[in-house]
Amino acid sequence: MLLADVRTAVPRDAAAISRLLAEAIREDYGSLLGEMRVGRLVSDHCSLPRIRAEIEIPGGAPTWLGWLVAADADGTVVGAVSGGVPFPSEGELYALCTSPAHRRQGVGTALLAAAGTRMRTHGAASQRITLPAERAPGLPFFTHHGFTPLTAVRLGRTL
Questions:
Q1: Is the separation of the CB atoms in 21 and 80 below 8 Å?
Q2: Which residues does the UniProt record annotate as the domain N-acetyltransferase (predicted)?
Q3: Three-state helix/strand/coil letters over 58-79
Q4: What do you get for the CA distance between the two ends of the chain, in Å?
Q5: Beta pairing partners, 71
Q6: Class for domain 3-158, per CATH?
Q7: What is the value of pTM for the model shown?
Q8: I need a labelling partner for 80 at 20 to 30 A (CA). Which of 22, 66, 71, 89 fits?
């Protein structure tokens, strides 16, 4: 996956983002957090109306930089990331997911790089993420990309 495959999400991507995010949460956290907590995460973060609304925020909000998606050669969305700059100089990743079938192929790395570029453009000097659990399956990915623990579930890195 090349960075050029990453683009700003458009309204027609909302269903794919919702599906990918729900699939990733269920696969990554199902056994770790239990059915009830995973169901709540999916309900809170994967709602199609919510994702549609977030994509359609005209021009973005002051702290919201939107959704980016990665697509394969056929145009199928295989990953997504959302983020913003909620505090001066501090970027925040709200979600990052890849299709389980496309993991370890550079999709997450390309999305993380594109989100970082977008955040730097809006004044961020650092990037943060909060994971749903201490032993989150994504922890090795983030540490590989320079994130260090700030708390048990919060990680950060310099951009």
A1: yes
A2: 4-159
A3: CCCECCEEEEEEEECCCCCEEE
A4: 21
A5: 77
A6: alpha beta
A7: 0.89
A8: 89
